[in-house]
Every structure is written in structure tokens, then in C-alpha cells.
Amino acid sequence: MKSKNRIDSWLDILDNFILNSGKIIAWANGFLILVIVLQVALRYGFNNGLVVLEELEWHLYSLAFMFGLSYAAVNNSHVRVDLFSNRFTKKTQHWIEVLGALFLMLPFIISVMIHSHQFFIDSWIHNERSVAPLGLPCRWAIKAVIPISFGFFGIAIISRMSRSLLFLFGKNHGNQ
After folding, report:
1. What is the end-to-end Cα distance of the chain in Å, rounded?
2. Distinct helix (H) and strand (E) counts, the chain
3. Residue 174 pLDDT > 70, yes or no?
């Protein structure tokens, strides 16, 4: 019983970290709305849009979307084929969760993290900036979001998989 509580508490800590980070990063959507309104007002009200605002829109959207993946995984609100999934027993659903995480999600996440890390490093070394003269500097900052957000996503998937394993092996029947 102690190991179950210890494992569950570690998984809860990981999940809460992802959820709390997601709630903070969700504020990027509020800033995104403000930037869009400002850009529209400048473009159509004053006939003068700003490239920096256009790029900032994409950066804020990317930030919210990329970290939203892990938030959705922890909340179990990601897309799946419920037409089939709902017909399976709980045990089968958890086996699919474990196998899908192990053979599909985790290899994909690791691959993206490895390749995007080098993508970020190259950008950092060359101090990459926007190709637009009045665009945003420090292109490496948005490129750093890819490996970091996929690290969060990996933590979320490992947590989901661990909870399914606990369910399957009789350690936790009430948490799923």
C-alpha cells in the first residue's frame, strides 16, 4: 500500500507541475488576443500593420499550442477514436494506452526532442533572427519551445502510461 501511495503522489506531483505550468502559459492566449486586436486596429484603422506584431502572434500561438499538448494529455482531453475506445473494457483501454505510449508516443517525442534540440542550438549559435528587417530578434527563443514543450509532453505521457500500468496491475483501480 505504501508503494502505491508513493507512486501516486509522484505522479500527482508531475501532473500538477504540468497543469500549473499550463495554466500560466495559457495567459499567452490573452496576450495573443491583445496583439491581434492591436494589429487589426493598426492595419485597418491606421493603414500601418507591424511585422513584429505578426510574428509575435505566431510565437504566442505556438507557445500556447505546444504546451497545450501536455496539458491535454494530463487532463485526458486529447483526441482519440472514441467510437472504438468506448466499446472496449477498461482493461483493454489501459493496455491500448500503455502500448500506444510505449511504441508510438514516446519514440515520437524522443525523436522530436533530439532533432529540435539541434534546431535550437544552431539558431542560438548563429543568433538567428527574423528575416524581416523589423521582425523579432532571438528566433532561438521560439525554437527552444519545441524541445522544452515536448519534454513536458513526455512527462505527461509517462504519467498517463504509469497510471494505466498501476490500474492494470491492481495497484490503483479508482484513479482512472
Report:
1. 18
2. 7, 0
3. no
